[in-house]
Design brief:
The chain has 8 helices and 6 strands. The chain has one domain: VSR Endonuclease (Endonuclease, Chain A, 3-Layer(aba) Sandwich), CATH 3.40.960.10. It is of the alpha+beta class and about 170 residues long. It is globular. InterPro entries: DUF559, Endonuclease_DUF559_bact, Restrct_endonuc-II-like. GO terms for molecular function: endonuclease activity. This is Endonuclease domain-containing protein.
Length: about 170
């Protein structure tokens, strides 16, 4: 005679198995999407916000700018983007005077561009003094109103190269 195992449902998956932590189900551990080193570095960078970053984050967080979701200090390759909208593939960088005519920033921009991200750079002082104008420029990129490489004294926009833009010769 078969031994009665009680009234518990069979453990062949379903809700009982899902209710248990993965390690108890015997599932193989999958590697984290991001390394613990990147997570820790991003935390450090967020805690070291300067005033301009804090002011812009107040505008971007919780989908506050046109309903677009932004994150802070997102790793892209070996770099960390100040702010990024994953869906629109847009990175927003704030630069202090040490970034003036920086070859390092050009390399960063080139890598982010090859990863499919457009890069929009502002001077930190402009964010502090002209936050509404900065936000309007970000929205212009997100809405497609600013859609070509632009280099000006107060901003730099590098459009990501996609199959659509390279076919058109942009």
């Amino acid at each position: 005679m078969a031994q009665d195992k009680g009234s518990s449902p069979p453990r062949s998956g379903g809700e009982v198995a899902r209710a248990q932590p993965e390690t108890e189900r015997g599932a193989l551990e999958q590697p984290s999407r991001r390394s613990s080193e990147n997570i820790e570095r991003a935390r450090q960078l967020r805690q070291g916000d300067n005033m301009a970053e804090a002011m812009l984050w107040n505008e971007l967080k919780a989908k506050g700018l046109g309903g677009y979701k932004f994150v802070r200090q997102m790793p892209i390759g070996p770099y960390f983007a100040d702010f990024a909208c994953r869906k629109a593939r847009l990175v927003v960088e704030l630069d202090g005077s040490q970034h003036a005519d920086s070859e390092y920033d050009r390399r960063r921009d080139a890598l982010m561009r090859t990863e499919g991200f457009s890069v929009l750079r502002f001077w930190s002082s402009d964010v502090v003094k002209q936050t509404p104008s900065v936000c309007e420029t970000i929205l212009a990129v997100l809405d497609g109103r600013l859609n070509e490489d632009t280099v000006a004294p107060d901003l730099r926009f590098i459009l990501a190269r996609t199959p659509e833009t390279t076919e058109g010769g942009v």
